[in-house]
Specification:
This protein has 15 helices and eight strands. The protein is of the alpha/beta class. A hairpin with a 6-residue loop joins strand 5 and strand 6.
Length: about 425
């Protein structure tokens, strides 16, 4: 009988031990930091990997003399504005804590919360322009919500300094694809431990955790206190709550199984079959029942089930935003129209659903979501502008939908200069038409 192989990843701490390995990592970070004047940019999502990478950098630089800690280390966290609210609240509190701790400890850490510009936000594109819910063949969201805000920031740093070093918590053990990509970058390394960033000229990538396993990350986070005063055990609890079986043992050594690989993302995401992390949070914690309307709205946006596909087609116009029609030839050789953006009634429906969900959460959710904006006032104004000015929908329906759903008058600034008819004129015109 063939001997069963142990597929458990080898720990980076196995050869030299935990403390010695961490010291080697910190020494490498200090040497790279002091080697030049190129500013660092650390990607921080609030998850375990980016937390561990940032924690390593913080601990390493804290051991330098204050006069040596002059080069800025920018910590960027991109909020898509449709993040899981629990995770978004966690990250925002972490950034605030980090900012205060950096000042107190005289660290060069500079936290930044990045958001997409209003014309790129999820709801402006879906409700305003009528883009259908994202799908693999029309994945319009990732570039606008995630990539552009961070790339814009990095380009600004490069423009001001000539170069930037991007520090990421990516690991080869995350996936085979990630391992292949990292290996490809390694072959083109221009400095020891730094690889070129193919997407952004004049920027280099440093991945201090690239050889760490999932277990290694949790072991580090549980054994070493968070240097900016946040609680890593609370992070573990959040991961536990997002795991379907609720199992997430406290990691105390390399023999202990680690927490599940929960993925936190946008609560509206229709690029996956289901939002497993949000579903698990609701299932594992009755105090998170307030998130159920979010899950229901996300599932309604989904288009995978046969019934949902039929409804999705009914909700969409066959004319593109440019007015053009697109055809495809089916398996029987027949020409079929390709559905385009959401119709006016569909966009109005989605707006009402989002606003009603927002009101319900504010009325029934815990204290930290009592002022939640699922859709911001700035987004609402841009949606209204698109409907009235770009799409020439003279009914100007948004203020009325807002008032009905929220129970308060719409507080946005007026755009009456762009209206052909005011509300009274539209009412008289409608009554005249109905009279005929």
């Amino acid at each position: 009988m063939a001997e069963r192989r142990n597929t458990k990843p080898v720990s980076v701490f196995q050869a030299e031990g935990f403390s010695a390995t961490i010291e080697v990592c910190k020494q490498e970070i200090r040497e790279l930091y002091l080697a030049d004047g190129v500013p660092w940019v650390i990607g921080y999502s609030g998850g375990k990997d980016s937390t561990a990478a940032l924690q390593l950098v913080w601990l390493a630089l804290a051991e330098l003399e204050p006069k040596q800690r002059q080069k800025p280390v920018h910590v960027i966290s991109t909020d898509t504005l449709v993040e899981n609210p629990v995770v978004a609240a966690w990250v925002n509190r972490s950034l605030e804590t980090m900012r205060a701790a950096s000042v107190k400890q005289k660290m060069p850490i500079q936290p930044h919360r990045l958001t997409p510009i209003v014309t790129d936000t999820f709801w402006v594109n879906l409700i305003g322009k009528g883009y259908p819910a994202p799908r693999n063949k029309f994945r319009w969201c990732t570039e606008r919500l995630k990539i552009k805000p961070s790339n814009t920031f990095i380009r600004d740093v490069v423009r001001a300094n000539g170069e930037a070093i991007l520090v990421l918590g990516t690991r080869k053990a995350e996936s085979q694809l990630r391992a292949r990509n990292m290996a490809r970058h390694e072959r083109h390394a221009v400095r020891d431990r730094l690889s070129p960033n193919g997407a952004l000229p004049n920027s280099l990538i440093y991945t201090p955790l690239e050889d760490w396993s999932n277990d290694d990350v949790w072991l580090f986070l549980m054994r070493v206190s968070n240097p900016w005063g946040y609680k890593n055990k609370d992070l573990l609890t959040m991961y536990k709550g997002a795991s379907a079986d609720g199992e997430c043992p406290l990691v105390v050594d390399t023999s202990t199984p680690s927490c599940g690989n929960s993925r936190f993302g946008c609560w509206v995401c229709t690029l996956v079959d289901e939002d497993k992390s949000m579903g698990a949070m609701i299932q594992n914690d009755e105090e998170k029942d307030w998130m159920l309307p979010l899950l229901e709205l996300r599932n309604e946006l989904d288009f995978r089930r046969e019934e949902a596909r039929k409804l999705d087609r009914k909700r969409r116009d066959f004319r593109r935003l440019s007015g053009k029609l697109t055809y495809y030839t089916n398996s029987e050789g027949e020409a079929q129209l390709v559905p385009g953006p959401y119709k006016q009634e569909s966009r109005s429906y989605w707006l009402r659903r989002v606003l009603e969900t927002q009101r319900w959460i504010r009325d029934n959710g815990p204290e930290y979501v009592r002022k939640i904006d699922l859709i911001s006032l700035e987004e609402l104004h841009e949606i209204r502008r698109i409907w009235v000015v770009d799409k020439h929908e003279i009914e100007d329906m948004l203020p009325g939908i807002y008032a009905d759903a929220i129970g308060e008058p719409y507080p946005g600034r007026p755009i009456d200069d762009n209206l052909i008819f005011d509300a009274d004129s539209l009412r008289l015109l409608r009554e005249a038409c109905e009279g005929d």
